[in-house]
Specification:
The complex is a heterodimer. Chain A folds into two domains: 40 residues; 135 residues, Glutaredoxin. By secondary structure, chain A is α/β, with parallel strands linked by helices. Helix content of chain A is 49%, strand content 17%. By secondary structure, chain B is mainly α. Chain B is built from six helices and no strands. In chain B, α2 packs across α3. Chain B starts with a helix and ends with a helix. The chains are: A alpha/beta, B mainly alpha. Chains A and B meet through α1 of A and α3, α4 and α5 of B.
Chain lengths: 202, 161
């Protein structure tokens, strides 16, 4: 009789211990789950912040490569598509603009006249129409008699690569494919001439 | 009028009337119905239907033109995504890494519910025994310290007096 009671008590104790172990196990797992989730979320936000704070290409760094699908009549060397890499060995003046941008109109004539001056000296001017409809872009190019290669920023990929914050913005890229300078807002004749002369001399 | 001539006349009238029906002007409401689900990257956080900038006005003109060409809302959205990137959409596309935006809240609710359930279960087991009575704490109550015991005796004695 005593043995039976002892056995029953033992079984109860074992059951309780097993239950307690299961509870502890589930609690431990839930703690791991919560902390895992918190760490994953923090990592995600950190990654997002790092990406958001990544600035535009700095001077002396390699200019991000991109592919352009030129507007009809505004090709480079009669090619419909070209990448920045194809232009390596030449000085590149990369200008972001839009037909709705008032400041872009200030520099439009200057860009065109400077392009005409340097087009046969190993200088390429590239216009990238930012957040602009094709119809309006073409009307703008015609209005200012622009002849240098121009393309829409399809998928906003080029502006994303260069982290532009508005238009106009101009990047000067050397023969070695590195960014040499950047201008926020309209360029003026002096800075344009100086930048191109310096890059041609390198 | 003879019958064949009449049919020919009716057919010609119908053909002449078709372009007039097709060129029915697109209303602002129709344009805005498409525009409200799009965001221009220049003016972030402002839906296209209420954005006052020239860039957004140009986009609305583009929508109007495409609606007039008979394009559907989906086709117009697709055009804008191809041209300006997926960030123009009010709702990120449910594919790739973007799926996390949709899955995270659901996962959060499910995990929260499981944890809350575990917590309640734990509380129930700790607080109530099988007979429904509040269980005593399993930890033994430490005996009062000797000086504390003496102090209590004195207080009780004075209270009796």
């Amino acid at each position: 009789m005593n043995e039976t009671i002892t056995t029953a008590t033992d079984t109860n104790t074992q059951n309780e211990a097993a239950e307690e172990t299961t509870e502890r196990g589930s609690l431990r797992w839930s703690t791991v789950l919560v902390w895992g989730g918190v760490i994953a979320l923090l990592a995600l936000f950190g990654w997002g912040l790092l990406n958001a704070n990544e600035g535009r290409p700095e001077e002396g760094t390699v200019a991000p490569d991109f592919e352009m699908q030129f507007f009809d009549g505004y090709q480079w060397k009669d090619l419909e598509n070209a990448s920045l890499e194809d232009m390596q060995g030449q000085v590149v003046v990369l200008n972001f603009w839009a037909s709705w941008c008032v400041e872009c109109r200030v520099e439009a004539d200057l860009l065109e006249s400077t392009w005409r001056q340097y087009r046969d000296q190993g200088v390429v001017f590239l216009g990238v129409a930012y957040v602009d409809s094709e119809q309006k872009s073409l009307a703008y190019l015609e209005e200012f008699g622009i002849t240098y290669p121009n393309a829409p920023d399809l998928g906003s990929e080029i502006s994303n690569e260069y982290k532009i914050t508005g238009v106009p913005e101009t990047f000067f890229i050397g023969k070695d494919g590195q960014v040499s300078d950047f201008v926020l807002g309209p360029v003026n004749a002096t800075m344009l001439q100086n930048e191109i002369q310096t890059l041609l001399a390198q | 009028m003879k019958k064949p001539t009449l049919y020919l006349f009716l057919l010609l009238s119908l053909l002449l009337a078709l372009p007039a029906v097709a060129q029915e002007p697109v209303t602002d409401d129709e344009v805005n119905a498409v525009a409200r689900d799009l965001y221009c990257p220049v003016c972030e956080n402002t839906p296209l239907d209420v954005c006052p900038t020239q860039a957004c006005q140009d986009w609305r003109d583009e929508i109007r033109m495409q609606l007039a060409q008979g394009k559907s809302e989906e086709e117009i959205q697709q055009y804008f995504v191809e041209r300006y990137g997926p960030r123009v959409l009010a709702e990120p596309p449910r594919e790739g890494f973007n799926q996390i935006v949709w899955l995270l809240p659901i996962a959060g609710v499910v995990i929260g519910a499981v944890l809350f359930g575990l917590y309640l279960n734990n509380l129930r087991k700790e607080g109530v025994d099988e007979t429904g009575e509040v269980a005593q704490s399993t930890a033994p109550v430490p005996p009062p310290a000797a000086d504390e015991d003496e102090y209590i005796s004195r207080v009780e004695k004075e209270l009796r007096e």
